[in-house]
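Action item from last week, closing it out:
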Amino acid sequence: MFRSVFPGAAWLLVAASAWAADGAAPDNARAMLLAGVGRACLAAKTPADLETLAVKLDRLPASGDPASMERQRGAVLLVSKWRDYLTAVRAEDNDAAVKALDGLIESTEWVSLMPRSPVLERYAEATKVRWVNYSLKSLEDVDTAIRRLRDFDAKYGLWRDGRAALKEFERLQEIRRQVGQVPAATVEAACRPRADEDPEVSTYKMLLLPLVVASYLDLPEDFRLPPQKGEMTFDYLQRILELAEKKGELVVYWRVLAYRAGLLGDCPAWTTSRLTALDKTLSGLKKEGESQTGAALGDYLEALTKAGIPPQVIVCGEHARQIIETNPEVVQQLAATRQQEMVRARLGMGNRPGMPQDMPGFPGAPAATPGIGTPRYPGERDYDLWRRY
């Protein structure tokens, strides 16, 4: 009986030993894998160097030991953030590098796998100021700014944004040297601001543009004013606007105001109103010259409902009065047209297919071009609006 039982007991003892060994094997493998995580991270040069390790950690089964499980979570976090950091360094994306290191500094789960000092050292390096102070108050300051940026880059290194700004400065400086030798349109196109560029680059563009903008807008010689030292584009164009208003040059005023609105990408209510008044006035003058008297009167009357400039208001008033006095039938036609519009509006028939359209040139007529101050598409700047007259 004893002999018949012993083999079974022996089998249980052997199985128990095997189970114990089998349970110890994953723990030993886990410990060995986790122990090498810190060294692997510090040795890695690219995110791909940690790819295999990341896969092994992802496939590692959960541990029943809380301490071991915490180390496992810490290893996953460390490898993930370190790969993010290496990716950012290769892309010269300083903000992303700081963000990845921040994620490690805020956690303590990984500290048993790798010392904190390498992370802190890299964080200090990433947050180090990599820029140089300079002032752009005039075009003469740009040479100094470029020289300082180059010196700083050679000694300490500039991050991606700084190098991009330096490259733009150098490009614009070369364009500045070509002013007078290349078409004004070439310089103007290079000076159009972008939303994603360094503010100082935009400043340089606005200092450079007054050298060519009057020529680009094809203004008369009397309006091609020499820029003052340190004068920005907005202020330079404002001087031309004041001169155009003083001389009653409506076309010059239109071109400058329309161009400035497109350049700045902003068209406040007063600018929109003034542009509409000028547009309708100039349109009325053109139509009157083509013997479209009724259409011209409609434009003049609409222009007078907007907040224009004094010379434009005077022109509209005089031409409208002359048409009314010499062409009474045009007034009757205009009154009849407006009455028809009111009837259609009350009946809700204004936009039904097949309905007769408004007479061109009269208030309410569909515009042949986009409205003044209204971009063709959301976010689009209308740089060519000034070309209408």
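Closing note: The mean pLDDT is 82.
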